[in-house]
Design a protein that fits this description.
Helix content is about 30%, strand content about 25%. Strand 8 and strand 9 form a beta hairpin. Pfam families: CN_hydrolase.
Length: about 270
């Protein structure tokens, strides 16, 4: 972590995104629950100190946050600002209860509680929409983050399985970028964690036109992919192809736009 953070600071990075399960991946059933902590626990405090020392925003995808009653955990995406303050906490809505073809049977809901709220946050690199991994397969969430919550950058920290990642990872990420006209930042766990668990990897950053701007040179190894978030370029894409204006809400329903952000942005 220290090496990657130092490299990020040296490269002028303002926001560093870490993948799902960034601090811990268990090898035995229930192990994640046993180490889960509340947001004021020592694990997260360590990352808060790193953010303060480096003066960098941290997107921490997939933190094992202990539920208040201790019976289960939340799969939480935590956003820290450059002072180490928790700016946002998104608790993963869609839980991965899947029999992966040619892969493992995973039941995330056995120890994890589902979240119930969408989360966006204003940052120096744009307005972020926070998600986690399996959320990627539910375009409705990303549509609402863009057209209702005015997101400009979508974060998708993940630990995609090897089988599903090879089949669907990049195509889903690029689809979310194109259909929302947002940047997508997809930090990803990579390689074999233990005898039962292997992640696909291939972290990348995608622009609103669907172009992959940066990706780790070796998708199976830890690395750093750096790209510029250009909001002028984003607005140009949206202006030239105004899908927001062309949406037929009269046919498939309306969404309640977050006008408070639009008003504050105009000031």
């Amino acid at each position: 972590m220290d090496i990657s953070l130092g490299e990020a600071v040296a490269a002028g990075v303002k926001l560093l995104s870490l993948p799902e399960c960034f601090s811990f991946i268990g090898s035995r059933e229930g192990e994640a629950l046993s180490i889960a902590e509340p947001l004021d626990g020592s694990i997260l405090q360590g990352y808060q100190e790193l953010a303060r020392q480096s003066k960098i925003w941290l997107s921490l995808g997939g933190f094992q946050e202990k539920c208040p009653d201790g019976s289960r955990l939340f799969n939480s995406h935590i956003l820290l600002d450059d002072l180490g303050t928790i700016q946002s906490c998104y608790r993963k809505i869609h839980l991965f209860d899947v029999d992966v073809p040619g892969g493992p049977v995973l039941k995330e809901s056995k120890f994890t509680a589902a979240g119930s709220e969408m989360v966006v946050a204003n940052t120096p690199v744009g307005r972020l929409g926070l998600t986690v991994c399996y959320d990627l397969r539910f375009p409705e969430l990303y549509q609402r983050l863009r057209f209702e919550k005015n997101a400009e950058v979508l974060l998708v920290p993940s630990a995609f399985t090897k089988v599903t990642g090879a089949a669907h990872w990049e195509v889903l990420l690029r689809a979310r970028a194109v259909e929302t006209q947002c940047y997508v930042i997809a930090a990803a766990q990579a390689g074999k964690h233990n005898e039962k668990r292997e992640s696909y990897g291939d972290a990348m950053v995608i622009d609103p036109w669907g172009t992959v701007l940066a990706r780790c040179s070796d998708h199976l190894c830890t690395g750093l992919a750096v790209a510029e978030i250009n909001l002028d370029a984003l607005n140009s894409v949206r202006m030239r192809m105004p899908i927001s204006e062309h949406r037929r809400y009269d046919i498939y329903g309306y969404v309640q736009r977050d006008m408070s952000y639009e008003k504050s942005s105009a000031l």
